[in-house]
Amino acid sequence: MAAETDTIFALSSGTLPAGIAVIRLSGPKAFEAAELLAGQIFSGAKASLRTLRRSDGSVLDKGLVLGFRAPKSFTGEDCVEFHLHGSKAVVSAVFNELATLTSLRLAEAGEFSRRAFDNGKIDLVEVEGLADLIAAETEMQRRLAVEHSFGGQSALYMAWAERLTRARALIEAELDFSDEEDVPGSVSDRVWMDVGAVYAELLQHIQGAQGGEIIRDGFKVVISGPPNAGKSSLLNALAKRDVAIVTELAGTTRDVIHVDLDLDGYLVRFFDTAGIRESDDLVEQEGIRRAKRAAFEADLVLLLEEIDSDPKYTPEQPQGTMLFIGTKLDRHTVSNRYDVCLSIKTGEGLDALRTAILKQVTSTWSGSLVPNRARQLQYLKEASNFVAEALDGGQLDLRAESLRIAATSLGRITGRVDVEQLLDIIFSQFCIGK
C-alpha cells in the first residue's frame, strides 16, 4: 500500500456507462480538494447539488456532493462523494482534474476498506464479509455475507475470546493471590464448566464450516453414468438451454462441462461428465478419468442409467451423497430401483429431481453463523485445540497459558492481533474503489 497520508480517489460505483457514477475521496485533503471543484462542502452527510468545474472555470458536470467528517465515515477519515452522471467521459474528466492536485492519487485495490480496517471501523471478518456481499449472486450468499459483513460473526468470536480471557484471569488470580481473603477458593467449578461450554460451541461452529463453504462457492452436483444415459440432456433440461452437445453417439461428451444455477437462492453447480465405459480412445480415456475424479469430489452425484437396463457402472463412493436416477421414463415404467425416475422428453420427474437436489442443498446450512473461509477455519481449529489442552488438566499455570493462546487465535480471525502478513493478500482481492 502507498502512503496512508495521501488523499485517495476512485470510482466506487458500478461499471460505466451507468445512470450514476459515485466518485469517492478519502484522506486529509478530501474536503479541500472537493471544494476546489465544487465549492463549499457541507459535512454531516448532507447532500447538496453542485456544479463541478475545472481550475479554469469550465464545467465538468453537475451532481450531488456529500461530505463525511472523520471519524464518521466508511474509512474513518474525511470523505467526500460526488454523485455524477455515469458516463466514461465525465468520470475521466473528473479524475484528470483530481490528479492535478497535490497529495491526491488514484486508490489501489481495496484501499478504502484497508483504511477502514486500520482506523477500527471494520475488522477482518467484516472485510471478508463485505467482499462476499459485493460478489453475492444468490439469496443465500447474500444472507451469509450479511452476517459476516455487519458484525454478527465477529461478535461471536469476540464473546468466546472474552469468556476465555475471563477464565484465565480467575485462574491467575487464584495462582497469585491464593492467600488473600477477597479471592475465592478453587476456581474449578466456576471456570471449567464455562470453558467446556465454549469448547462445545467451538466444535459445533467448526462443523458448520462445510456449509459456509458450499454457500459461498456453490454446491457441486456431478451428473455421472454410462454413455447415452441422458446426462447431457439432463444438464440442458436443468439449465433450460443448450449447454452440452447431445447426440446418439456414445462418447460425445469428452470433457467436464458445467453450468451454475440459482435454485431457491442457493448456488448449485452442475457438472456433465463423460460416459463411463471401457475405451481405447486416449482422449476419451482422459475424459473418463476426469469424470471419475469429479464424481468422487462432488457434494452430490446423480448416477444416471436407462430404466430397466443392466447396470454398467459402479462408481467409487463419493465424498458426498449419491442419488440413483432412472432415465427415459417415456419408454419404460417407474422402477423402485431408483431414487427418481424421469423423462427429459416429457419433463416427467424433473420437478421431483429438483426437489431431491434442494433437499440435499438445504441440509448443508441452517442459516446459523458459520465460517466460510479457510483462514477462519484454521484459527478456529487452533483455538479449539488449545481449549482442549486446557480442559485435559495438568498444572494450572499451563492450562491458563493454553487459554491465552486460544483467545489469541480467536483474535487473529478478526484481525485484532498479529495478522499484518495477511492484510495485503486480503485487501488485494477487492476491486478499485472499495
From TrEMBL:
Its cofactor is K(+). The gene is mnmE. Gene3D superfamilies: P-loop containing nucleotide triphosphate hydrolases, Probable tRNA modification gtpase trme, domain 1, tRNA modification GTPase MnmE domain 2. Residues 218-362 form the TrmE-type G domain. This is tRNA modification GTPase MnmE. GO terms for molecular function: GTP binding; GTPase activity; metal ion binding. Keywords: Cytoplasm, GTP-binding, Hydrolase, Magnesium, Metal-binding, Nucleotide-binding, Potassium, tRNA processing. (6S)-5-formyl-5,6,7,8-tetrahydrofolate binds at residues 24, 81, 121, 434. K(+) binds at residues 228, 247, 249, 252. Exhibits a very high intrinsic GTPase hydrolysis rate. Involved in the addition of a carboxymethylaminomethyl (cmnm) group at the wobble position (U34) of certain tRNAs, forming tRNA-cmnm(5)s(2)U34. One of its GO terms (cellular component) is cytoplasm. It is found in: Cytoplasm. Its EC number is 3.6.-.-. It is an enzyme of class 3 (hydrolase). InterPro entries: AAA+_ATPase, G_TrmE, GTP-bd, GTP-bd_TrmE_N, GTPase_MnmE, MnmE_dom2, MnmE_helical, P-loop_NTPase. Homodimer. Heterotetramer of two MnmE and two MnmG subunits. SMART domains: AAA (SM00382). The keyword Hydrolase applies. Binds 1 potassium ion per subunit. Its main location: cytoplasm. Belongs to the TRAFAC class TrmE-Era-EngA-EngB-Septin-like GTPase superfamily. TrmE GTPase family. Mg(2+) binds at residues 232, 253. GTP binds at residues 228-233, 247-253, 272-275. One of its GO terms (biological process) is tRNA wobble uridine modification.
